Automatic annotation (TrEMBL):
Alphabetical list of SUPFAM superfamilies matching this protein: Adenine nucleotide alpha hydrolases-like
Biased composition (Acidic residues): 187-199
InterPro entries in the record: Rossmann-like_a/b/a_fold, Universal_stress_UspA, UspA
Domain of life, per lineage: Bacteria
Annotated region (Disordered), positions in chain: 180-202
Descriptive protein name: UspA domain-containing protein
Organism: Streptomyces rapamycinicus (strain ATCC 29253 / DSM 41530 / NRRL 5491 / AYB-994) (Streptomyces hygroscopicus (strain ATCC 29253))
The family this protein is said to belong to: Belongs to the universal stress protein A family.
Domain annotation UspA: ranges: 6-138, 148-277
Amino acid sequence: MRMGAPITVGVDGFAESPPAAHWAAREALLRDLRVRLIHAWNPPSPPAPALPHEDDQSYWSQRLLTDLVGELRDTHPGLRVSAELVPRETVPALLDAARDAEMLVLGSRGRGTPGGFLLGSTGRQILAHGVHPVIMVHADDKPLTADVAVGVSLRRPNEEALRFAFDAAARRGGVLRAVHAGTNRPEDEEAAGDEEEPGAEGALDAALRPWREQYPGVPVAEAFTAERPALGVVHTAPGSGLLVLGRDETEPGPVPHLGSVIHAAVHHAPCPVAVVPRG
């Protein structure tokens, strides 16, 4: 954890923003961090003539933030929270804010609803290019539990995702559920018959061992499923309060490729999803 870094929340006028902000508030209290609310909007160019405040976009944007700050302070005593109205395009404003944050939290309208952070280019860009963890929260996420699920690739485990998941489980006092889905072995199919190579159980145990030693108080449950990863990880998430997934470096291009597992999880997982970039 970087000293002094806030948990930043991207806020818009949709119903998913308050649940995302409340998730961030609970997380901030667990970590003794402050919450920073960001609302980005494009001011008119050239500037619009002076308008009565009820017709002024900046007035309603500021009102949105002010009301949400009050709601968070009332609901989470002791929370340190600030809000900022940023007159910039959404993607660069949030990516800049995320660079100085412990994590960035966004409300997601991913479950079958057009638009929203995920389904539009905004969500794809931020998930693909955020340099710190990005948390996607749905308005209808199931009640929180202390358990944390993490998807583990055996070919090349994402150490940053494992660190984030173990730390989250330790702070919550929950079980870490380490999930490997898809092939039974970390090797390519051509090597699957080599008896000298370890099986999935041994590879998963090796990936988790250093983190078990660093977090000896965290109970760990290992899960294997033969389903393809995009389905298997999502199907093992119910019962967890958070699903953690690693993200490899994104290839440059006009439409970032997030991978089928992240795409499926943010659409269908019944809990918040943390996407953690590989360091």
